Queue: 2 jobs
Job 1
Amino acid sequence: TDRRDGEALRGRIAAELARTRARTAALTDAVDDEDLMRQHSPLMSPLVWDLAHVGNQEELWLVRDVGGRAPVRHDIDDLYDAFKQPRRDRPALPLLPPTEARAYVATVRDKVFDLLDRVAFTDRPLVVDGFAFGMIVQHEQQHDETMLATHQLRAGAAVLDAPPPPEPRARGGGEVLVPAGEFTMGTDTDPWALDNERPAHRVRLPAYVIDAAPVTNGAYAAFIADGGYDESRWWSPAGWAHRQEAGLTAPMHWRRDGDGWAYRRFGRWAPVRADEPVVHVCFHEAEAYAAWAGKRLPTEAEWEKAARWDPATGRSRRYPWGDEDPTAAHANLGQRHLWPAPVGAYPAGASPLGVHQLIGDVWEWTSTSFRGHPGFTAFPYREYSEVFFGDDYRVLRGGSFGTDRSACRGTFRNWDYPIRRQIFSGFRCARDATPEEAHA
Ligand code: AVJ
Ligand code: FE
């Protein structure tokens, strides 16, 4: 059965690699060569940089490290090292032109399929349960989401298309009480969980109340209409300074449209729909909204307990609905749609306590700075997570409509600067339970 397990794992990895490469191809084949080489925003890389960077990481970890094979092209390692090349400088680099970049990633992939045929899934930490392959699938999917954000920033005619998300099938509003007590945060057992999701550890939280759904455009528009962007009392000092300096008046990609708002989605203007989760807000905007609403952002632990804790068994699960991988009925993931689904669209994805849309739709800002869980060890490289630990970054949870299921689970952690909003970021609010609620 060991051999059979190995064959099943090999098949699963091959399918994930192929599925992921099809997405990368769709994102990079959608525009012409000149567009691939152009920088659409100083925050983003040219798409052709992401493409070859994905291949270069795959070469470094799978071809060279796991496979012990000769380099395909060691001369380009520095060009595609994210730490050596700041994003704004990447368009000026002597990057591989599109034809060469495509040939490079295809050559690397051929070698990886050859390696995958022969590799033994031993106890070596990099290969146990296919970890390095899973890491590379997730890495490519993360860059695919980054490329999707680049598409969102791109000027000009629309090139991406997808059906609209499902309509509401349940009421999804209101708040949910989460009782006081311990839960298990993080994981030791999810085979493809990344270093920052480990290890599992017990966390005790007092009773709290969390929104049953992400904050909607309608609610956010009420904050704007009430002068939320003009009153410093709702903002932290750093948030207010940023609001002033950047001239923030509404979420990114919004403009006034008669009495309401429109927003630009991948090259097309659409009316802002009141029951969809708000997207493209920074941490400071989320925090100001929460203060205006008489609430606060959830801590990262509060978010994870709401997403994983099963009151029937006391166990932490992989997802709000259980341990099964997400399907189209559970969550708006994987670029199946190009914007968040209205509140109530995924009743099958709700938690046992009735918290909806924790997975998919929008990344959710939490109030927590990005740090290692107690007992953290960097693996396999410090530059994935550890070098970002500290108070410069805030944690986001749950994934967006642009996040693939392979890079999204109840333990998955994302992070960004509190001023960033080109990512598919929204939020939900939380508050302390009142004494009456806590003892109910
Ligand atoms: C985890 C999304 C913050 O895109 O900067 C990609 C993921 N790390 N290549 C990022 C990542 C290395 C990372 N985030
Ligand atoms: Fe990367």
Note: The pocket of N,N,N-trimethyl-histidine (ligand 1) is lined by residues 139, 142-143, 146, 384, 414-415 (CB under 6 Å).
Job 2
Amino acid sequence: ILKEICRKTNIKCYIVGGFIRDFFLGVKNYDIDITIEGNGIEFAKILNKYINGTLKVYDKFKTASITAENYIIDIASARCEYYKYPAALPVVKFSDIKEDIARRDFTINMLAYDVLNDAIIDYYNGLKDLQNKVIRVINDKSFIDDPTRIFRALRYSGRYGFKIDDKTDILIKKAVNGGFIKKLSNDRIINEIFLFLKENKTDLIIESMISYGIQKEIFDNIKLNIKKINSTINNGDIILYRFLLLFYNIDDKGIEYLLNRYNLRRKYIEALKELLLTKNNLCFLKDNCDNIYIYNTFKNIKYEVLMAINISEDVTIKKIINHYINHLSHIKLTVNGNDIRNAGLNPGPVYSIILQKIFNAKVQGKIKNHDEELNLLKL
Ligand code: ATP
């Protein structure tokens, strides 16, 4: 389709960046970035006539995106960027594919597919670096212009198991030691951390972040945890879960620090506080705790917090949490106020006391099903 449009309209169109990188790595990628030498929005409108997806146009940025089936296709006009000062947002100017590629971060992301000519464009030996599994920048000022690239380098290196090229490694160290991380806005920093949490190899990425001395710059004295950080959970919010694992060792001061520095959504801060509080209460849990006590300890605790606490080395705690998750957390009454009325009692505050008693009996395992609940009600 792209080729047909290019032929008919004489527009030059290129597939660029991550999709091409992942194509050569044999990795499925549903994000397709297209660069047009010319008007990207016009091209997007024509393309969408063929594929009939959902088109969104961003006039301000002169870009468009189409969602079709599982794919997200981003279409932009070729542009070059320059930075007025370190870590500034770039000044953008429209240009050709050559300049558009030159503004990109690493050689492995600097590959493009020229649709009309059915050819790979590889000005910076990206294919060779893909083969040799290397992350490399082409510009000595790259990390100074945009220090988010430091995080991006770590992310790609961890994700694909690529080595950071020696010179690139030195440039990262120079940028970190030169204090350039601090020039980034806190929003951009925390955004990169959340991107880390989405990866499969978050542990390796965080480890290398620590080894570059970045942790101190962004989290001060907070001690990060990487144990089980790559694990997933069956239900719930995986990113929240991993966030809690990352900050598993946090204390009140640490939470205060995060709160003051980063614009974190409330659910993250609240879950962190819940984690800290629950961890402090764990010392009261004993092997012989009864079900009611366990239920009441955990009933208001988020699933992600419980799963995070489950990385604890304490066998008793693990056993109790698993018991709660598997056997107690889903318990619900099947009888209700109507059943009490049918049993002959007039409505009143006593209803909630009765229901609570039946519920407790269920949590204690004394009754299991609807009939047994009804029987207890009649008693
Ligand atoms: P993935 O989404 O799989 O992490 P991607 O390569 O698609 O990888 P995006 O963040 O979507 O990554 O960026 C698209 C492309 O834009 C990249 O391939 C890269 O060429 C370029 N790019 C993104 N951020 C930067 C940056 N900070 N500096 C230079 N180029 C960048």
Note: Residues 17-18, 31, 33, 104-105, 109, 146, 148-149 surround adenosine-5'-triphosphate (CB under 6 Å).
